[in-house]
Amino acid sequence: MWRQALLYFRTHSYHADNCQAKETLQNEDEEDIKAAQWIFKPMGSERMEMRKRQMSTTQETPGAAQAQHGTGNRGSNACCFCWCCCCSCSCLTVRNQDEERARRTSHELQAEGIPNCEESPAPTLEEVNAWAQSFDKLMLTPAGRNAFREFLRTEFSEENMLFWMACEELKQESNKSVIEEKARLIYEDYISILSPKEVSLDSRVREVINRNMLEPSQHTFDDAQLQIYTLMHRDSYPRFMNSAIYKDLLQSLSEKSIEA
Questions:
Q1: How far apart are CA 252 and CA 260, in angstroms?
Q2: 133 contacts: CB under 8 Å, gap ≥ 6
Q3: Averaged over 127-132, what is the pLDDT?
Q4: Residue 203 belongs to what H/E stretch?
Q5: How far apart are CA 202 and CA 223, in angstroms?
Q6: What is the pLDDT of residues 173-214, one digit of tens each?
Q7: Among 173, 171, 131, 174, which residue's Cα sits nearest to residue 151?
Q8: How many CA atoms lie within 13 A of 55 on its CB side?
Q9: Are the CB atoms for 49 and 56 separated by under 8 Å?
């Protein structure tokens, strides 16, 4: 009897344990499902939120582009420090002045073009032949200087002749104020390293000029003028004598002389 009771007790305990285990597993499964739903639900919400943001961003793009365009317009008139300002500021004024100065300088250079040559009668055959004898004879006549200057222009060294001629003009002046003004212009045009027409001078001559500019006179640029004269004589003059400009002029005058 007691054996049957023990067997019944064990069997009942086994079924009870099985039921409890099933309930435990079922509860754990439900908790896992809930946890999974809790985990994946925000992801779906986030996706929906991202889609909403994309939709709103797409709708707001035209307005933002217009605002950015307007900001860009303001930025073009603004300085480097105040991008949002819409009025003129000091650095904008300086920038506009620099651009205006550059445009004015370019316009002046275009209007200036090729400087006018000296007025002189047409050279004779004798004069042109004499140019071949020495550089001094070439530089003595206006026609010779004009022909040589035309050749220098083809070699982009016309400033040498212009500087030499400016020094010659300075020597003819006697008025002190005029001398000072012309000396300043010569320095700015041909001596200053910022000038596009700067001539080639050594440091010694430049130091002499800087000292002479303290009290300008007719002879302020004598050393520089001599150096440029020597440069033209040794460097440019031999090429001029072999140039088409000189040979064509000589041939033209020879043909006219034969016809006469």
A1: 12
A2: none
A3: 96
A4: helix 203-212
A5: 11
A6: 999 999 999 999 999 999 999 999 999 999 999 999 999 999
A7: 131
A8: 6
A9: no
